[in-house]
Amino acid sequence: MTGTLSSARTVSFRDALREALHEEMEADESVILLGEDVGRYGGAYAVSRGLLERFGERRVIDTPMSEALIVGAALGAAMVGARPVAEIMYMDFVTLAMDNLVNQAAKVHYMFGGQFNAPLVVRVQQGTGRGAGSQHSQSLEGWFAHVPGLKVVAPSTPADAKGLLKAAIRDNDPVLFIEHKGLYPRKGAAAEVDHVVPLGVADVKRTGTDVTIVTWSNHVHIALEAAERLSADGVSVEVVDMRCLAPLDMTTVLDSAGSTRRVLVLHEACRTGGLGAEIAATVGEQLFGELAAPVRRLTAPDVVLPAHTELERTLIPDVEDVVLAVRDLLSS
Amino acid sequence: MTGTLSSARTVSFRDALREALHEEMEADESVILLGEDVGRYGGAYAVSRGLLERFGERRVIDTPMSEALIVGAALGAAMVGARPVAEIMYMDFVTLAMDNLVNQAAKVHYMFGGQFNAPLVVRVQQGTGRGAGSQHSQSLEGWFAHVPGLKVVAPSTPADAKGLLKAAIRDNDPVLFIEHKGLYPRKGAAAEVDHVVPLGVADVKRTGTDVTIVTWSNHVHIALEAAERLSADGVSVEVVDMRCLAPLDMTTVLDSAGSTRRVLVLHEACRTGGLGAEIAATVGEQLFGELAAPVRRLTAPDVVLPAHTELERTLIPDVEDVVLAVRDLLSS
Amino acid sequence: MSVFDQDTRIVDVSTLVRLYRGMVRIRRAEERILELLLQNRLSSTMCHVSIGQEAVAVGVCDVLRPEDYVTSTHRGHGHFLARGGAMSALMAELMGRETGACRGRGSSMHLVDASIGHLGSNAIVGGHIPIATGAALWSSLTGQSRVAVSFFGDGATTEGIFHEAVNFAAVRGLPVVFVIENNHYAMSLPWERATAQPSVARKAEGYGIIGVDVDGQDVLAVREAADQAVSRARRGEGPTLLGVETYRFLGHSRGDPSTYRDREEEQRWHARDPLLLEKIRLSAAGVAGDVTESLEREIEAEIVAAMEFAEAGPIASVDEVFSDIYATPLGGDQ
Amino acid sequence: MSVFDQDTRIVDVSTLVRLYRGMVRIRRAEERILELLLQNRLSSTMCHVSIGQEAVAVGVCDVLRPEDYVTSTHRGHGHFLARGGAMSALMAELMGRETGACRGRGSSMHLVDASIGHLGSNAIVGGHIPIATGAALWSSLTGQSRVAVSFFGDGATTEGIFHEAVNFAAVRGLPVVFVIENNHYAMSLPWERATAQPSVARKAEGYGIIGVDVDGQDVLAVREAADQAVSRARRGEGPTLLGVETYRFLGHSRGDPSTYRDREEEQRWHARDPLLLEKIRLSAAGVAGDVTESLEREIEAEIVAAMEFAEAGPIASVDEVFSDIYATPLGGDQ
Lengths: 332, 332, 334, 334
Ligand SMILES: Cc1ncc(C[n+]2csc(CCOP(=O)(O)OP(=O)(O)O)c2C)c(N)n1
Ligand SMILES: Cc1ncc(C[n+]2csc(CCOP(=O)(O)OP(=O)(O)O)c2C)c(N)n1
Ligand SMILES: [Mg+2]
Ligand SMILES: [Mg+2]
Hints:
heterotetramer; A: alpha/beta; Rossmann fold; 2 domains; 7-stranded mixed beta sheet; 11 helices; 37% helix; C: alpha/beta; 12 helices; 43% helix; binds thiamine diphosphate; binds magnesium ion
């Protein structure tokens, strides 16, 4: 990690993202924003508020509702010199731009023998918490980690959000940058202009000796809260924040797992085929015979998400569920 | 399994699929086909050849090139009484119909409180073997197994293809029916008209005692060949053909794994985030402490597929690779 | 008695009253829904009202037959009610009850009623257009004369699926009417920045079908245009693009102050409130004030009863949250 | 010396010869590629030739400047060569050599050459249309006068992405020319079953832009229409839909006997072979047979040299198969 965190200043996750966009746009003329309502509206979740006023219509582009075009045009611009940051309002709508992201952006560099780069970022918001229903709440990061050529990022703190977004914008590959809708108001230490977090490196957010929780995005905070509660009972939990989901930093995971010998993989996406399976399978394989308990996954069940805040809440692992799962791991 | 296999008659995978379509269309007026070139052309891989002539333009519909519309309209028709079988020519093009399949078809029954069913089948062809390149060769079944509400099928033999397609057509949920491009000419025992293979049930294609190979689609044959070779050296391999990838029949897998205590998960899709991870993670968790070796995955690496038959071949696990992996498992 | 309208449309007074009633019913329901939203009594945070646009839903649904189909949008309370959806099912759904239209799982953006051919509202803008098209396809293949109507906003017309569905319906002559409820904004994007061809009639030419631009604040004008489009569809003469010009009086959703709109522009549209225009027409036709007052009272009573029904219903149950993921559950492990 | 063409287009003889040469070059290259295909000497089984359609690629590319951009299709050999792609890079790519346009990884459907603004052909029908549009967006945002041309077939016009891209280009007035290479079939689907509006010019009206229907067998007509469209784009007057009517003389791909086409229809189009028409024009302009014979010889020599180059090149290496998955590899585990 390069750069400095501010000890005095605190910002929200939303503001940290805006700082990253602002600073990168200041530093590099080729960085542009495009998407639905990113300009005059300031973004559906207000991340880009003020940037149109600051950078003008040439660099902050309100597009028609055309998700495939947004990603596809961002790619075309990226191939000829731009560094576009496209916003897709909800992960669920990325379903409309899958060709552009998966068949095109992810493959341009390889299939054209290295002649073109695709330095674009697709920012997207996902997750539950608003009772937004089956078409506005899905967590689909697992799909994209299965696509060679894409990089996938899912930060949990304002400082990581800023540092990773800056790294993503500077990176020469297509990056899917995933923001959890519950994180926007969350406050944390602010990062200064030189703070850039390299892609592909996980972060141990809390050290511990008894159990490793591997997680990302909003669930890092749930894991940290559970760890805090468990520490009162003398249980020492290490929390690994993956931050980057492709490529996966399994070295950090295996180091932690090797020392605690007990692993819980925690995520909001539904269980079957989720990215937790990849991590669990790799840990199980690499540390065969060295673990004190089976690798457990704690995830949403395989259910369509109801548009009902209360029902939704029961489906997503919360602090209590994590505490129970850790205890269970310890007792086996 | 219900129905009979013919001992005398042999058919190709392609012809078995056509028989299933033919028989179901004979039996049920509400079964219709739609897709690009399914009628006059007979399907890009000739599966529906002759069906237009037999059933007419009312039931075999050549659509414009509009993948999203094909799946979306199939869903609309299904909600009001049809049993459409839509064809998407290559799995890679399903990227264009993800909203329709994932946000719509998979969710209709649940999100509308059970008021509507979505009895549609989306037939799709995938995989390598033709040097068809990065946009015509992907194996993306893992994505769909991660979508609650969808059923996913990937048969390996003519009889299963027929029996499962018939079951898929009769099923009241949306089914993604995956055919491997290399399988079409492959011959096998023919199945009679009453042969229906229930969804959600894996099949042990070869019994064995030393190692379990869990696989599906084209790789079942590669596993069987490897098993044959290994048996010459006294190694007894059990081959579990998943056949249905959602829901996953883990009971059959765990039974087999419990008895052999060594498991190789084999698939053509790239490794990270593939469905093999789900199976490996579950076996590792459920049989913790009971296995003689770590669960291994043998898959394509995380690479964009080159449009080059020879390069492509080096990337996909072949019989030799499987033999080596099994030996490796036995030596650990 | 019948009224000879200024635009030479002949309708009887009972129709005028029915249309007015339909619009008031939607307006009052949504006013109540907004209150519930502010009181945090809805089970979801997603809620979009159609205040100002009522003439579209009411004018179109008035000419449909019971066997016809409708699909709708994130802004779909009006379509649901106008099509004949129960006020009680709507309120119970919004309040997350087992007795709601979708057993409390769909909320505002996923209203549905199979019994009246309402194939569902949809939270993916444009996502339901092919569903209506597919229903029309089946109607046509089976020789039925059922018509499918898809309501959607101006924003949906720039989504690829709009194009694919309209093209398919056109080339096959399907019995579907595409109703573009053009309230001139897709969230903050004004129509003139969404397209270089503002006329829906001209867009229709690009598909080789008939298109009409209609005043969406005049419920009679909407009804007339819809009647022609639906009749054409029913006679097997293919689809129509109906461009209905209207305006949402409020923000896109709660918390949108519509700073991207001009106050003067808003005023101009408020002056053309569809309820107001229809009320003037009612007076002109000699309908007495007590008629409108009594229908207001009936509607108020309907809403109160619906809310009581909703509150009496059980909250959608956690025990049931796993049921219906599949219509046909299988022997597998999930 | 210049020729006064029957359609009042004035061009000089050198242009006539250059256009003819461009078409012959594509024709002969593809004839050779078909031979290689039948001999199983190509590294991929996917290969689509454009024989019969050469006037489109040649007529359009003739009016482009070096700094302009092009995107292309699965049927893209002609666009690649006409844009100035090297015969040797084409042949080496098809034969799977490290020296090919994409280092042997792209084959027939993914030709590319960054040095001449060829942003790649694409195996997803329509998949590259937004790429050209995005390049035009960047050209426009940065005040350059670079024009982007996207070639695609009639089949692509029914894909949603066509609509999204054309609409976006129209509303922003982007410098892009959409060339619809209408060979009247998308695999087996005839144009009249793909759309109810066969005129591309009429389709353009639906987007509020200019559209033109052009005879695609007449290379001068194509060139003239392209020149106007490209000039408009370069002057900042926005995009054009260029509907170029042509025909593929062979099947969609190897093994397609085109049973869905009428032999009589095929004959009619064969009579309008663009090479033939241009050759007649050359004679009329007094170009002697030895000019065309010598250009045939030059082209033959170019192809022979290209094949020698290809065969001398190393087969794309297995050791290199993992390079370039990322432009910036990371510290992660993959
Ligand atoms: C595919 C998709 N993209 C974006 C959104 C987010 N969104 C919801 S409504 C809306 C505006 C829709 O505009 P319009 O279609 O005109 O309908 P209106 O809201 O004006 O009734 C947007 C951008 C969505 N729900 N679906
Ligand atoms: C999105 C997509 N759908 C289907 C295909 C399969 N396919 C390849 S070419 C083709 C026909 C294309 O027709 P057209 O655009 O007219 O081009 P032409 O082949 O006539 O040059 C089809 C269906 C594809 N490659 N991509
Ligand atoms: Mg609108
Ligand atoms: Mg064509």
